[in-house]
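Comment thread on ticket #2218

A.B. wrote:
> Attaching the input chain for the structure job we discussed in standup.
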Amino acid sequence: MRSKHIITIAAASLALLSGIESHACSNILVTKGASADGSCMVSYAADSHQLYGELYFRKGGKHRNGSMRQVYDWDSNRYLGEIPEAPRTFQRLGNLNEKQLIIAETTYGGRHELAENDGILDYGSLIYIALERCSSAREAIELIAALTDEYGYASEGESFSIADKNEVWVMDLIGKGPYGKGLLWVARRVPDGYICAHANQARISTFPLDDPENCIYAPDVISFARERGWYSGEDADFSFCDTYAPLDFGAMRGCESRAWSAFNRLCDGNFTFVDENGEEVTRPAMDYIEYAMGHDASKRFPLFVKPSRKISLKDVADAMRDHFEGTPMDMRLDIGAGGNACPYRWRPMYFEVDGKSYCNERAIATQQTGFWFVGQSRSWLPDHIGAVDWFGTDDAATSYLTPIYVCSSKVPACFRHGKGDMLTYSPESAFWLCNRVANACYRMYNIMEPVVRAEIDGWENERLAGQEEIDRKAEGMPRWRAKRFLTRYSLKSAESIFERWRRLEELLLVKFIDGNVKAQRPDGSFVTNGNGSNIPDSISQPGYTDTWKRVVAREHGSVIEVK
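C.D. wrote:
> Ran it. Output below, let me know if you need it in another format.
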């Protein structure tokens, strides 16, 4: 999900800093043993300045012998070719399928020598085809490799998050460019009880060569690098990411920092992991801050970490709302945040002043998100109940997630394809409504965002609290009836929160118009002056942060000082 074909080393990360358009996503992977309820989870934010937020849906079914599947590039909609259709396909909703398989991705670009590919299958098509044909993570990995061997790969370097009911895998891959079809890839199983994260930078370094239960890889992933002159050491010391996606400042600061921050939040500031000696150790997250900030590539943090507590779906959702709060990269603290601590910076991210180069931060939560989700796969439930796509649109920090069961026969109207696009406003679109709320908050972020966040938390906690009861009811029904029941529940939930968000946008306008904040009673009604004419009382004017005041006083004080 992005504008592609940026041909530089660590292309995605450099694009972030230079202002070149890029699709920069973030994924968090949670195993059964690390989750509070025993589910496998994958989160994903599809971040692109050009991507419209909607929920893609394709029913499964049987296909005639000889049927062909046309392939279009996910980013550009450019026709790439066709491949034979499978005799039978599974239903997919977003990035999940009816067998509880979840696949998400982030693009990292990689070596410029491998950027130009003339294959048929782009990364987005690989994801959707695998979801339509596979029932497990291992099947998906094998299919992705087999299809690209036969039809070629048409994208840049990618990291895939692949989870089923029992296993969670991370897969780093890159095409062979002009040197042949197929992929160079390594896939590692996330150890149960651990989590993983990636954000537009390959993260698999060295890997076990003889542990097929937990690590599988392309047979030529090392020999190919030797043939190109990119590696000459021992096989056991071969690092995928160092060879095929060499680090630079942008890769660390613009990309790896997000994975580090997700770990920091979900592990409460301490990383527990298995070191090179096979011993489980714990280190403070701040031991790796110089790496995350792009200053010291030798201090790379682990691929897998064990959280200090069991991780809930709400924890994952809130980690996707991160702006580096409480770290040296906290985006609220400098004058770039304006007078109301807004944790966003408009593009380009790179700028120069007096011959020196600087960068703005790229946090997990960002204004250019098209859609985002937390996918949930639950082994203790039948497939038609266990797979849930908690789906949202636009900036994760100011938008909600709502549960949509993957067995649903329809997509909620507010997420449905055709309800507007990036050039066409629609009052029926969740994407446009969430953008209206987010852009309202950007004006007075520290004052308005808490109001929105309270609504988000209230809704998500309410849905999560009721999930077990919905599951229980569905389990007591015949499969066909359960699907109808869960479809109806998913549609009504999406409709309900969409209407609540309409009312929220109206509240934000009325409550915060012109920088005046009107007081409300506990029941939500506004405080009036008591004379029966709806004239507001108890208006406050919060003004600006102390940081902003000091900068203005320093730079313009001689003009505006009161004497």
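A.B. wrote:
> Thanks. Noting for the ticket: Residues 479-512 form the longest helix (34 residues).
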